[in-house]
């Protein structure tokens, strides 16, 4: 047994193999009471089995919470106002869920008088950083147990053997003689890592994907929808107002049926290694396309360009676990200020993996002036002759440099 003064520990608990082993391991090695916290953030699974497993393991204080609306409203939507995307492709589905879980872990620890929190993130991944940076930002004195950095159960086979030796029930132990994928799902996305995906050349099996049909198997008829926006947030589909979580879930269903949102990438983890992951983000893919479309109509040019310059920094902060950092909060204030005029409707066409914008409009907030932009007679709205001086002034430094080169 590990010598410690931990009397009570709050564990982020899913009921899967890793956290089921961790629960028992904490009880055996720390001799502490374990409080479990299971969050429903839209993973699409019945969480009652997790409650039952925790009860069977002797847990007296069990927290199973529906955080779907909070997740979409307070984390996903602010991130999408920034159009955040990591390394050009990843819509940060796992990354953005971690600060919410970290916050609730710290809150439950405070409410229950726990001495520490614990998580099941491995010592190779990003999630350990995200959980712990978030926890320390909210409670600088919190103590954290990360079993993967302490024990010698460093493979799935060892975990399964340890679970069997303790009589811990584990589902889906083997699939075709191989370890199954490591899967993480929430309202924004589902991710797949491990197994055959560890070879970057190996094409994912079609049976791996859960939310989306293959684009070539999607309906031959395009699906058209309209997304309404208020202050940068999507609020309706085809005129029907919806809460953030309900709207995102609806877009997932619609987009998935049309093969929208699959990506297969090799990303740079914060801890230093490259990792191959496959992701399904149907609703988020639609939402990002639509948000940029309504911004194209309503944002000032320089504000939009500055936003695009800031976006990679914002995305890195989310990916690396700095959601509660002062720099992310500073960027969020600036981004949210730009969204006051981002109101209107975007029409989109979904067809076999593609999202195409076919229209956008904004009553009162559009900066598109047809009388200025028209190729027809503009009745003096724009003086074309003014462009002569504009071009000559901007070309001045080029002309000076070119003359010097001729000497």
CATH architecture tag of the largest domain: Alpha-Beta Complex
Give the number of domains. 3
- Tally of helical segments: 12
* Shape type: elongated
Uncertain residue segments:
173-179
Amino-to-carboxy terminus distance = 83 Å
- Rounded mean pLDDT score: 94
Summarize the biggest pleated sheet.
Answer: 5 strands, parallel
Report the portion of residues in β strands.
Answer: 15-25%
Biggest sheet: strand arrangement: 3-2-1-4-5
CATH class of the largest domain: Alpha Beta
Task: Give the topology string: H per helix, E per strand.
Answer: EHEHEHHEHEHEEEEEHEEHHHEEHH
Report on the structure:
With about 400 residues, the protein is an alpha/beta fold. The chain folds into three domains: about 10-65 and about 95-165, HUPs (Rossmann fold, 3-Layer(aba) Sandwich), CATH 3.40.50; about 180-360, Argininosuccinate synthetase, chain A, domain 2, CATH 3.90.1260; about 370-405, no CATH class. About 40% of the residues lie in helices and about 20% in strands. The chain is built from twelve helices and 14 strands. It has helices spanning about 15-30, 50-55, 70-80, 100-110, 125-140, 155-165, 245-255, 280-300, 300-320, 325-340, 370-375, 385-405; strands at about 10, 35-40, 60-65, 115-120, 145, 180-185, 190-195, 225-230, 235, 240, 260-270, 275-280, 345-350, 355-360. The strands form three sheets. It has a five-stranded parallel beta sheet, sandwiched between helices. Strands 10-9-8-13-14 form a five-stranded antiparallel beta sheet. Helix 4 packs across helix 5 and helix 7 (about 245-255) packs across helix 8 (about 280-300). The longest helix is centred in the last third of the chain and has 21 residues, at about 385-405. The protein is elongated and about 85 Å long. The relative contact order is 0.12. The model is unreliable at about 175-180 (pLDDT under 50).
